[in-house]
Known about the structure:
The complex is a heterodimer.
Chain A: H1 20-24, H2 26-36, E1 41-44, E2 50-53, H3 56-64, E3 69-70, H4 81-84, H5 105-113, H6 119-122, H7 126-140, E4 145-147, H8 149-153, H9 155-165, H10 172-183, H11 190-213, H12 219-225, E5 227-228, E6 231-232, H13 235-266, H14 268-276, H15 281-291, E7 297-301, E8 305-307, E9 310-312, E10 317-320, H16 322-325, H17 360-377, E11 380-383, E12 390-391, E13 399-401, E14 403-408
Chain B: E1 2-5, H1 15-19, E2 24-26, E3 32-34, H2 45-53, E4 60-63
Residues 5, 10-16, 26, 32, 55, 57, 59-60 of chain B line the site of iron/sulfur cluster.
Amino acid sequence: MTSIYGPVTDWEHDFDHADPEYNANVHQIWDDLLNKKQCPVAHTERYGGTWLPLTHEHVREIAYDTEHFTSRSVVVGTTKPSQFDPQPPPSPIGNAPPISSDPPFHAEARRLLLPAFSPKKIDPWASEIRRICHQLIDDMGDVQFVDAAQQYSQDIPVQVIARMLGFPVQDADKFRHFVHLVLESVNEDRETRLAKFMVFDEYLTHQINDHIANPRDDLTTYLLNAEIMGNKLSPEHVGGTIILLLVAGIDTTWSGIGSSLWHLATNAVDRRRLAENPDMIPTAVEEFLRAYAPVTMARLVRDDYDFHGYAMKEEDWVLLPFPAANRDPNVFHDPDTVVIDREENRHAAFGLGIHRCLGSNLARLEMNVAIEVFLERFPDFELDQSEEVTWSVGQVRGPRRLPVRITARS
Amino acid sequence: MRVHVDAQKCQGHSRCYALAPELFDIDDYGNAHELNDGVVPEGLEARARLAQANCPEFAIIIQE
Lengths: 410, 64
Ligand code: HEM
Ligand code: SF4
């Protein structure tokens, strides 16, 4: 698959984050832009005009500046929101609160979800996540070659969120296909995507109605009982929120786990250190989040705006590459080296400012447990050189095929 | 030594609470705050600095 605009030849003036080359060679591309081309903010006419700032300072400034940059749409697409939806929900709300919301509404929508994802609510899930991880490894059987992206990393976030929502666990596959539709098939035409969307919407409505009829102790029932500005949420709003949790939580965490395992499969020293010292895993996970941050967000320019000499136009897209900010030498010492016991690490993998990832406590827990269990069961493994590693395309970056050879098990 | 969380800047990344739970707590809405009026017990100074160096929002202030 290539981008509908064709392959990129000039990353400075015509970049495309959905060109498969981008995620596959992203560190080289940023390095060339910053150091060879002296280009801290790249631009392209693709997608109707898109900017790519690369320094921590610029990314931070844009993330904090909700006045000039709106979150109305955070995934870059070929059509601007004003084109496909003549009367979209106004900017403070957007169609997937809180991620698509701006102040002051944003805080209300976020407040509703925060308690469900606080450390004290999330920590008790550790044993269930550990059980899921062990089960996935048991299911692999006694084979020597496994795909650590497809057979392991991919399944963990879907199984966890299905349990949290109180949905049938065997439906986890449905979630994955749906998220793929939203995030990766930006090139498919609108009608096809809408039709597939409707099928999932029906499924969701069915699950929500079932929860209305039979309330239980889970996240769906919590959402049905939650209030925003004194009113209970409508079933449609609950459905929209669940969709956001699936889209925001699945491919992202899959990518975080996958990239960490990719690093370990390609670095024997780090692999051995962590296998022998599992108590180092939490610090290492922060370093994997820094060095291989999975998520790049986007904003839309609200009105024509001069950003440090760059003439941004109303409704231009601005990518927020938190992964590039995480490799800025002004904030991180020796940023291109992965140092698994790095002590000073104020990475921005979960964003900066008011939209800080709502699921960050859950994502961190899943990554920690996933790495711990994998190393416990497979204390030694390496890339399977006869197969190819493939990377995702688009704003979420992580390995989609990660063939490894297991060389020790316990 | 004293620590203080700037509530205007804190966004609830929870790094301080993970790294130094003796010095910081975080509420259900992701607002962190210092414990014990921010007084850092003897021996925990390095932990306070560690928390400060890991806060993505530069929200932790240390007074020596
Ligand atoms: C390693 C995994 C993950 C990464 C790297 C990640 C990253 C991010 C980032 C960078 C943002 C900021 C968005 C912005 O600035 O526009 C964000 C927001 C969000 N994330 Fe995550 N995320 C992950 C996992 C999760 C999980 C597991 C969930 C929930 C189940 C989740 C739910 C959300 C929600 C609801 C928001 C919107 C918050 C708001 O707008 O106030 N994420 N995430
Ligand atoms: S690390 Fe910083 S932003 Fe995060 S909770 Fe602590 S003070 Fe707040």
